[in-house]
Amino acid sequence: MFATYSPLRIVLFAIALACLLSSATAVRKSEYTVEEVQKARDSGKDLCEDFGGISFWGHEDHNEVCCKKNCGKCGGTGCNSRLGSGENCCVSPIIDNAKECKGKEDAPCVLPGLPLSW
To answer: Looking at the domain assignment, is residue 81 inside a domain?
Structure first.
């Protein structure tokens, strides 16, 4: 009446289920508050990593900006000459473009829900 399963089969099923659940819970937020960004920043977490980018940490007014990760540094002097180019590494073009971060590889983008500052 009841099927019997080997311990190996049960372990493999448990691992597969854990992998499925962990990927399902890695949900990106649809909006961030200034307080959430500040809390993440204070704890050293870079929210832009969720979108394939790096944050511009140099100025409080631009917490919302995510440059492409291959820029090495987001914004600041020399951003035009970095590997990722000016439109991927400089803050102003990213804000001007106003593309919201939504998916894993969206950078350059701006974090959703935050006011854009120029």
So the answer is: yes
